[in-house]
Task: inverse folding
């Protein structure tokens, strides 16, 4: 088994005011079901949600300039990451297909193999 | 991760909107709704990979911070403590009552009152309200817009005084009755909206019992009515989401706890000096709830209640229901005649239930019911209703 990192981007509602409290909760319920199903199979190795609304700092370039907040359009904004165990990139992508962020037009899951250290 | 109660977001929406509407005043209703929506959307984003320890406190904190930002922008002065007090769970019941009585003002049309209650106190979106009432969402948006504008115009007159409570109690009850009724007769099996509307109407009428100046008898009678009908809610639709007629409902699945709660309310409602519509309707509901079968139902008692209701305020629908009862007390032929006598009523002519009831009595008498079922099918307002008639039509043809 190898490790893969899922990077979640975007995923907000285009017109959030049209979404009801019940629908928001139902969406959240599908996230819970998705992570639980991976957990039940022992495939979930870590999960980190990032702050929302997005806050933090960005340090950039040789000048090490520190600025406020992440700079990205909302569809490119990273909202969280999880680490999963999977036999192949295809298998990992199959897991990612079940992610509820994809219910949003702008939502995406980037699936990246995590390199194992050889110094170990 | 603790599982949230199924209505957590909806209830939090109602709690926070009522608090902020009261805090910010009638001219900022839309603003209050926006602040709460922002807080709920933030929770949806932040909780995707795990819930906080105390979800309620989390949402409260975010809503408070949003409120402070917005207030600063609006140059509206409110101390942090005042916001805390308004948002505190202890203030919830009073805030919701305040909004309920403020909204049920004669200056607003009844349909606007009902729409505002569903939006502000039940946490339903315009889309959900539109689906519940089988109208397009634009109609609901316009109704809400008008309602908010009217509340803003009324401004300080909105302040609910002791004397307003009694004066407006009838309007509030009428609005809650409509909320319940839409929930009960709505039949969108794919969404939890309709059962939620029934539960909310019951919750809000029980909340009214906490108001000192309230006429408790009438309030208890309405609560009894809601309990006794809600007890049958789970058997009204089958697995396919199709309406099951009373005669075919599995009575062992009626909610005994809700029936008991209804009986307690009805007992408490007897204390008043006047008989309201709710008393009579609750009496009818209880006669059904207590009966082991259609045959064992106390139809003479139900007939007396309908007669009293019609004496109070006649309506074609009441006359139609009375005609249904006549078939049980005086026989099918008398029941059929009573129905035929109503055929010229223009409202009933467009009412699917009237034609379904014509069909049912015809079928039971061995006549040709198909033409009546077809009319009921053509007029049916929901799939649940239509398919129910289609099934009976098929059975009657076979």
Result:
């Amino acid at each position: 088994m190898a490790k893969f990192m899922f990077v979640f981007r975007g995923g907000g509602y285009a017109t959030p005011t049209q979404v009801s409290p019940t629908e928001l909760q139902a969406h959240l319920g599908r996230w819970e079901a998705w992570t639980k199903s991976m957990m039940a199979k022992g495939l979930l190795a870590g999960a980190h949600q990032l702050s929302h609304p997005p806050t933090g700092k960005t340090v950039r370039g040789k000048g090490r300039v520190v600025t406020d907040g992440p700079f990205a359009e909302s569809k490119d904004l990273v909202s969280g990451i999880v680490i999963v165990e999977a036999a192949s990139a295809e298998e990992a992508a199959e897991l990612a297909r079940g992610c509820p962020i994809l219910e949003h037009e702008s939502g995406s899951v980037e699936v990246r193999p995590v390199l194992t250290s050889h110094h170990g | 991760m603790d599982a949230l109660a199924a209505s957590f977001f909806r209830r939090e929406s109602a709690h926070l909107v009522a608090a902020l509407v009261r805090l910010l005043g009638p001219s900022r209703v839309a603003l209050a709704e926006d602040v709460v929506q922002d807080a709920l959307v933030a929770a949806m984003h932040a909780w995707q990979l795990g819930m906080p320890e105390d979800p309620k406190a989390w949402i409260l904190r975010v809503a408070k911070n949003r409120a402070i930002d917005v207030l600063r922008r609006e140059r509206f002065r409110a101390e942090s403590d005042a916001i805390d007090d308004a948002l505190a769970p202890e203030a919830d019941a009073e805030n919701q009552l305040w909004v309920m009585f403020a909204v049920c003002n004669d200056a607003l049309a009844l349909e606007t009152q009902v729409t505002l209650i569903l939006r502000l106190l039940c946490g339903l979106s315009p889309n959900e309200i539109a689906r519940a009432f089988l109208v397009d969402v634009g109609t609901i948006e316009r109704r809400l817009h008008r309602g908010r504008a009217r509340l803003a115009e009324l401004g300080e007159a909105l302040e609910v005084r002791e004397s307003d409570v009694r004066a407006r109690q009838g309007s509030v009850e009428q609005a809650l009755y409509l909320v319940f009724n839409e929930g009960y007769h709505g039949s969108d099996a794919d969404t939890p909206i309709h059962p939620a509307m029934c539960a909310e109407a019951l919750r809000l009428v029980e909340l009214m019992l906490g108001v000192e100046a309230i006429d408790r008898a009438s309030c208890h009678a309405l609560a009894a009515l809601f309990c006794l009908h809600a007890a049958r809610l789970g058997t009204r639709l089958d697995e396919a989401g199709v309406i099951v007629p009373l005669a075919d409902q599995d009575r062992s699945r009626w909610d005994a706890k809700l029936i008991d709660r209804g009986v307690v309310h009805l007992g408490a409602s007897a204390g008043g000096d006047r008989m309201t519509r709710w008393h009579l309707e609750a009496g009818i509901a209880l006669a059904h709830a207590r009966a082991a079968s259609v045959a064992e139902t106390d139809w003479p008692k139900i007939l007396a209640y309908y007669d009293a209701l019609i004496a109070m305020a006649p309506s074609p629908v009441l006359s139609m229901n009375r005609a249904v009862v006549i078939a049980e007390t005086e026989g099918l032929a008398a029941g059929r005649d009573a129905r035929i006598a109503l055929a010229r009523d223009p409202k009933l002519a467009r009412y699917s239930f009237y034609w379904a009831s014509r069909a049912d009595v015809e079928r039971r008498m061995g006549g040709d019911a198909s033409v009546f079922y077809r009319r009921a099918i053509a007029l049916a307002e929901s799939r649940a209703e239509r398919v129910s008639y289609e099934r009976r039509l098929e059975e009657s043809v076979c």
